[in-house]
Amino acid sequence: MSETTRTNEEKKLPLNGRRAIPPNNSNDEENEVPEMEAFGLIPRGFNPRDYLRVEDIYMFKEPNEINKQEHHTDKYYNPKLIVRRGQPFQIQIYFNRPYKPETDQFWLEYLMGRYPQQNKGTYIPILVGNELKPGQWGAKITHRENNSIRLSIMSSTTCIIGKFRLYVAVLTPFGILRTRRNSATDTYILFNPWCQLDAVYLDDEKEREEYVLNDVGIVFHGNVEDVKTRSWSYGQFEENILDACLFLMDKAELELSGRGNPIKICRVASAVINSRDDDGVIAGSWNNTYDYGVAPSAWTGSVDILLEYYSSKQPVRYGQCWVFAGVFNTFLRCLGIPARLITNYSSAHDNNANLRLDFFLDDEGKVDTRLTKDSVWNYHCWNEAWMTRPDLPVGFGGWQVVDGTPQETSDGMYRCGPASVQAIKHGHVCFQFDAPFVYAEVNSDIFYTKMEKNGTQVVESVDTTHIGQLIVTKEVGGDGMVDITEEYKFREGSDEERLALETAVMYGVKKQSTRDTTYQPQTDVDMDFQAQKAVLGNDFKVTITFRNKSRNSYTATTYLSGNIVFYTGVTKSEFKKHSFSAKLEPSSSSSFDIVIKSSEYMNDLLEQASFHFFVTARINETGKILAVQKATALEIPALRIKTKGELVAGKEMSVIVEFTNPLKQALENVTLRLEGPGVLRTIKKQLGRIQMNSTLTWEVKCIPMRPGFRKLIASLSCDALRHVYGELNVQIQKP
């Protein structure tokens, strides 16, 4: 190093009275390691060539070789060695002459970051011993032949996750000789769900294959009564994705020494996945305008988003909850943390975490949108990550909620989790992180409150079962849906549920009881509301049913408000108002149909074709109010995908995407996307317009790289129509 560069180096390091070494929070930066580290003056006749010298290191890093096979990392599209911690791996060292254990001494050095330190786990010297101890760094010789030795190396089960640089050091009487910096011997070390001593150990092989190794998944959306599905390509093994995921931790400035801890990694990742307050990966947009970006519904997977962020270092536009959750899932699975994507239907976004969502009614019993601040999301997606929680009492390990969607701040940043699912179920919301917020998302009650002229609030109706009525994830080994509601809450109305609620209140979740307010519901009349399933662009009907259980005749002044909403439950516009008087005969049921015409909703329709209906009815004889709300969504037509030609790895095949425009208008500025991990990289196509009733056909030629069961995923997006998807399972044969 010349004199000038050395003085520049010294200038660059700011003086800091608190720490001797600057923060070490970049996996990318390196220090210079001397090839000859002299112990003092070197005698004139010293020739390093006289001593044991490393000629070559063979890493067994091909996908079909022992290391990647045994460590379940053979799917990573990355030429370097990738291993999982706490499990032995092999390397072979070639010397310039046979190794003599009596006189020769060498050791390995693994380094990470700019300022490697042994006590921080960023400088790891490994001496060769006779045996490997489980869970600790070590190396032993398993094979000697001519000038080479084969080593089995064990990494620690608490080792930092990331990319290490490898050096081999040889001791000579006058100093240490090291191998040259060689990036081909860089070694990635990941979490190991197959190792019992690892914090992310998962004991079921089928679950490990799903939650760590599956690179496609399903997002459940729509609403409770009409669950819709779409596929999402996680692509955690695709080229450069591992480096992009490691970069996220650099971006979040997570100290390297903290990167062996899945709790810390999840916490910082939930902040860096969204762009709020740290210029993270994805910028959210919920207002139906997506200028200078991609509409959230158009993405088919995480790879494009992560690679764009990795190269531009700027937030990628735009995402909504399933996009944040899809990318977060890729990040977790890529690093080896078992993860799954969760959908909570009728998810409460409670602005003051008091376990009640207030919907204010005006004099006529209509919902007052000015006063109502809380909203019910038709669905909300988050992730669960699997890990032990040594920071909590026994029993709260296992699945942890982590959420990258920016909803509320936690410790000053938009992030959420990890929060123990078990703690949420039992109401132990005192345990970090953000359990009260998640508890409210799945457990709040809806209060319909009337504001009197004098400012008092009268509770007209309470709905205790609407929020969090269905929580689901994809089944292990298939595309079906699993209902996991009971993992988050006890059955509605059970003693255990009441106890969990009391526990949550004791630990500081605010809950106003209905006793504080005057509330006597009308018990002898029930009201129900159903919407007919309909395809986008068609008329459909909704039905309001009253059941009068009393012996009295009643009349009910009924008011229906139909709103076009974002999937977050926020209203864009009211498109239907209808009021009528219903006569309720004693001990009988009566139904009333209302027709919703396509001309009433088509102009204002938002991309998920979601409606939200409020129905309120005032029983004139008693003055009591009945209230019910329901979300419903139209069927959006799908894309059709088919293949042509032989489906064989390494051979050309065609993928054909077809779509028929169902609307009574032409579609403008249409974008199509198609991807399939292992078959083809994402391809985009822009189209000017598709006339009404006309069919578009798009053919793409590709050469699938990997044999096995694969999924093709396509999306179509334009201003008038979004959330149009198609998918196809294909079996790629071996050549």
From TrEMBL:
InterPro entries per UniProt: Ig-like_fold, Ig_E-set, Papain-like_cys_pep_sf, Transglutaminase, Transglutaminase-like, Transglutaminase-like_sf, Transglutaminase_animal, Transglutaminase_AS
Subcellular location: Cytoplasm; Secreted
Ranges where the record places region Disordered: 1-32
PROSITE patterns recorded: TRANSGLUTAMINASES
Domain of life: Eukaryota
Keyword Lipid biosynthesis set for record: no
Example of a GO cellular component annotation carried by this entry: cytoplasm
UniProt domain Transglutaminase-like: residue ranges: 313-406
Active-site residues, record numbering mapped to chain: 321, 380, 403
Cofactor dependency: Ca(2+)
Chief location: cytoplasm
Catalysed reaction equations from the record: L-glutaminyl-[protein] + L-lysyl-[protein] = [protein]-L-lysyl-N(6)-5-L-glutamyl-[protein] + NH4(+)
An example Gene Ontology molecular-function term: metal ion binding
Enzyme Commission code: 2.3.2.13
Annotated GO biological process: blood coagulation, fibrin clot formation
Protein keywords: Acetylation, Acyltransferase, Blood coagulation, Calcium, Cytoplasm, Hemostasis, Metal-binding, Secreted, Transferase, Zymogen
The record's free-text note on cofactor binding: Binds 1 Ca(2+) ion per subunit.
Record's compositionally biased regions (Basic and acidic residues): 1-13
Residues annotated for Ca(2+) binding in this entry: 443, 445, 492, 497
Entry's family note: Belongs to the transglutaminase superfamily. Transglutaminase family.
Quaternary context: Tetramer of two A chains (F13A1) and two B (F13B) chains.
Role of this protein: Factor XIII is activated by thrombin and calcium ion to a transglutaminase that catalyzes the formation of gamma-glutamyl-epsilon-lysine cross-links between fibrin chains, thus stabilizing the fibrin clot. Also cross-link alpha-2-plasmin inhibitor, or fibronectin, to the alpha chains of fibrin.
Official protein name in the record: Coagulation factor XIII A chain
